[in-house]
Amino acid sequence: MQETTSGYTYTQDFIPRKTLEIDLEHTAIFITDPQNDFISEGGAAWGLVGEQVVADKVVEHQVQLREAAKAAGIPVFYSPHTYTEMDYANWTSLNGIDTMMFAIDMFHEGTWGHEFHPDMVPDDNTIVMNPHKGLSNFWTGDAALQLRQYGVQTIIMAGMSANLCVESHLRDAVENGFDVIVIADATAGAGAHSKKAALINYEFIAHEITTTDDIIMRLHEAAN
Fold first, then answer.
1. Rounded to an integer, what distance in angstroms lies between the CA atom of residue 87 and that of residue 9?
2. Where are the beta strands (DSSP E) in 137-178?
3. By C-alpha distance, which of 140, 213, 152, 141 is closest to 177?
4. How far apart are CA 77 and CA 209, in angstroms?
């Protein structure tokens, strides 16, 4: 295993290391599912993800990313997850994760769990995209359109959950021609192996993996 100057340790020695240049005119923070059901104690998925969320200080790191973005003058995009009452009543083709989420009433529009974490409530620097219902906003939301309208080329990605929505957004962002930096300590997954599996895939797919501290330092340097 090899550690980069960012503090992230690659698990696969043969993967090339890259450090992207931060161009503030074309860079944004992108956070998936910063909602109570994932990152608040008492949320529907807390029993599955809570231990990792706490251990990796995911909420604290996401808050720091938002603050750093505002200080650097770059936008923050949210990709929230939503299911309506009609979705719950009428969806018939549920895969594994859909079945789990529907069973625990996750992201049900109008519930506390569907709301944003109190520390992650959108501010005047936050663009809340249309909600996604599958694992990626690029398919069931307006991510590509919004990012292009704001002139974004480089996405600094964080959020929940590591091996599902974050990885799906990462894959689709790359397929749509965006450069993606994944923040390894600002995401978490369900179960002991999910985040490890996600990080292995990030190493192949992302343009770069780094940490909250490193990207904040680089944003500060780019802005000054």
1. 41
2. 154-160
3. 152
4. 19
Sequence spans of domains, the chain: 2-223
68, 125 Cβ separation under 8 angstroms: no
pTM higher than 0.85, yes or no?
Answer: yes
pLDDT score, position 4: 56
Give residue-wise pLDDT tens across range 46-70.
999 999 999 999 999 999 999 999 9
Fold annotation for 2-223: Rossmann fold (3.40.50)
Burial 21-32 (b: 16+ CB within 10 A, else e): ebeeeebbbbbb
Degrees (nearest 5) of the Cα angle 149, 161, 28?
25
CB 159 within 8 A of CB 166: yes
